[in-house]
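Subgroup meeting minutes
Present: P.N., E.W., G.H.
Scribe: E.W.

1. P.N. recapped why we're keeping a running log of single-chain structure predictions: easier to compare across weeks, and new members can see raw inputs and outputs side by side.
2. G.H. added today's entry (407 aa).
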Amino acid sequence: MRKILFCCITVLFLGTSLWAQESDDFDDFESLFDEVTDIVVEDAANLPAATEPYSGQSATAGNITFSGSTTSNLGGKITWEDGVWDASPGATLSSSLDFAAKVDSTTSVHGSFSAGFPGDLQFSVSSLYLDYFAFDTYVTIGRRGNTWGNTRIFSGANLFIAQSEETMTAEEKAAAAEAESKLAAQGYLNTNIVSDSGNGMSILLRRSTRRGELALLGYTDDFNGYSMDTVNAAFCYDTNIGLTGLTVLGRSYGFSSSEPYPVIGLEEKRTVAGFDIYAQELCRIDYDTWTVPAVVLTAGFYRLWFEKTPHFGLNVEVQDSWLPEDGIHHVRIGADAGFKRLGSSGLGKIGLSGNWNFADTTGSLTLAFIRSELIRHGDFMTAITADYSGSGIAVSAATTLAFSISY
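Output recorded in log:
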C-alpha cells in the first residue's frame, strides 16, 4: 500500500512540469454552444475562480441593482427504442431575479431567487450571501455555490444531465440519480470537489499571497442545524511555477456523510500552440490505513478558432478512474465540437457532442442545430440523439422553440 501511496503522490507532483499557464484567450468556447442546453454541461472555466476578488458588479455605493432572466421552451420529442415509437410534447419555464447591494467599499450583499416548472412551482433561494473585506482578506458568508477546477466536460458527477433540477420531471430526476449512482460505483469523483457547497451555509475566506491566492471554505450539507457531523471543509491554492498554472486543492466530509474519505488533488493548465491543455489528479485518502482507495485522472484540451467565419470550437476530455485495491481502471471519453456564425445572417450554429464509457460499453452522440432569433427573443433548436447500451440503441429527436429574456 505504501507503494500505491508513493505512486499517487509522484503522479500528482510530476504533472507540474507537463502542463501549465492559465489563459483567458479561449474562455468564450462555451459561447459556441451556450444555447444547446441539452448537450453541453456548464462551463467551469467561465465561472468565477475560487479566489477571484469581489468586483462590485454594477452596483454603486448606497444603491441596489436588480437583474434577472426568464427562459421558456416549447416543443416536442420523438423516441424510438426496442422497436417502439413514442412521442410527447414538452414545455418548461424558469425565471430568476438577482440583486446586488453595495453598502460601501468593504461590504456588499448578493442574492438570487428562482422558480420553474415542470414539477412543483415554488420559489427557491439559489444564493444569498454577504461579501466583506478586512485585514487583506475577502470573506463571503451565506449560501453560495463554488466552482473549483479547470475540467470542462466531466465537470459534474453526472455527465448526462445539464438542466436545472427545478425544471426536471420526476423521471429525469430518477435517471440522473441512477446515472450518478453508476458512476460513483465505478469510482468517479466530481471534479469540482466543492460542487455541493451551495446546498447549505458556507464561509469562504480568500487571501492573496506573494506567490498566489489561497481559499479556505467551510460549509454544511443543508440548513438543518450545524454540527461536526454536517460540516465540510476545503482548501484551494492557486499559483504559478514558471509557465505552469498550478492548483492544489482538497476537502474533507462531515462525519455523517456517506463519503468516508477526504480528497486531495492537483491541477495543471497550459496554453500550447493555441490549445489550452489541462489535467487534474484526485485521490481519496483512507487516513486510518494510509491507503488510496481511488484515483481519478482527467486530462483534456480545448480551442476556439475565431480568425475566420464561421468560428469553430473543439473540446476533448478523457477520464480514468483507478481503484488500486481492485486493480480496476474505468475509462471514459467525451468530446464537444461546433460551428458558430453560420449562414448569410451569421445566426446559425451546429453542435456535436458525444461520450463513451469503456467500462460498461455505453455512450451517447447528439447532433444539434440552432437558428438564433428566428423570432424576437426566440431561437429554434432541433437535435437528434443516439444512446447506446448493452440492450441496444435508442434514438430520439427533439424540436424546441426557446424564448430567453434578460432584464
